[in-house]
Specification:
290 residues; mainly alpha; MetI-like fold; 2 domains
């Protein structure tokens, strides 16, 4: 099909706009990468923008030799995988029963679930609840309170509504129960939305630090990577404090902060290319159906 001149001009303008937006998104990351690989002398003079000057990998070496940081990185990776699997399981178990029109109390359950989406008790009541449950200074405080997102559940439920009713009826005629129907009919058709929600949950857990900041104070072995990075950035304004806490060595300073940011950012960025082809499909289909 031959495109008209106006169509080609429109495509060119859209491509230029996309390139500009992509460049704007990449500039901060390129700047951080360049600063992490540059000598501190050039950083002090603010001469580093998008290309490293005075190539130096001492900051990366320091980070990799820091047992606290390496432990936090692996711990956060395992925590993210575990939370993602649990959250997807909870989302499926909540969304699937609500697709049955004959579910007793289904409308009431829908109302209660949606109520929690718009209204929250607040930080202090949540803290008191977590304290009374004995979850302070416990790894489960990073898992249980956020194991289900109502927004993600609605996307999953809407996607399930889009599955033809005839498939469920055919499965029931063949003697399949609700669980078998879910496993053999619904889940194989839900690859795109599952991948999308897995990305939402994984990014949320990997980037989360506020819950650990509030509920975990003493056990540094339970600090996720983003909280450790937060502490590094907070303490790096005072070299003596940072050195005493073991966050960095004198002389590394700004370069180490940038290297730490790269280590905390790159792993989750590597997940996007694998799930990109599912992302748009999962969100749009789950949003418009139901």
């Amino acid at each position: 099909m031959i495109k008209s001149r106006s169509t080609r001009i429109g495509d060119f303008i859209i491509a230029v706009i996309c390139f500009i937006l992509m460049f704007i998104c990449l500039v901060p990351m390129l700047n951080v990468l360049a600063r992490s690989l540059s000598s501190s002398d050039f950083l002090i003079r603010n001469e580093v923008i998008l290309w490293p000057k005075g190539w130096n990998i001492d900051a990366y070496t320091t980070v990799l030799k820091d047992a606290k940081y390496v432990h936090s990185l692996w711990y956060t990776a395992v925590l993210t995988i575990g939370c993602t699997i649990l959250s997807l399981t909870m989302t499926i178990m909540c969304a699937y029963p609500l697709t049955y029109d004959n579910l007793r109390g289904g409308k009431v359950l829908n109302g209660i679930i949606l109520f929690t989406m718009y209204f929250s008790a607040g930080t202090i009541p949540n803290y008191l609840l977590i304290k009374n449950l004995g979850l302070l200074e416990n790894v489960w405080v990073l898992v249980l309170p956020s194991c289900l997102s109502v927004y993600n559940m609605i996307i999953m439920r809407s996607f399930f509504y889009g599955v033809p009713e005839s498939l469920r009826e055919a499965a029931e005629i063949d003697g399949a129960g609700p669980v078998r129907t879910l496993v053999q009919i619904y889940l194989p058709l839900s690859t795109s939305v599952l991948a999308t929600l897995a990305l939402f949950y994984a990014v949320g857990r990997w980037n989360g630090f506020s819950d650990a900041l509030i509920y975990i104070k003493k056990r540094e072995d339970l600090f996720p990577i983003q909280l450790l990075l937060y502490n590094i950035l907070q303490n790096s304004t005072n070299v003596e404090v940072g050195t005493q806490e073991g966050f960095f060595s004198p002389g590394v300073g700004e370069t180490l902060k940038m290297a730490t940011v790269m280590f905390a950012t790159v792993p989750i960025l590597l997940v996007y290319p694998w799930l990109q082809r599912y992302f748009v499909t999962g969100v749009t289909i789950g949003a418009v159906k139901g």
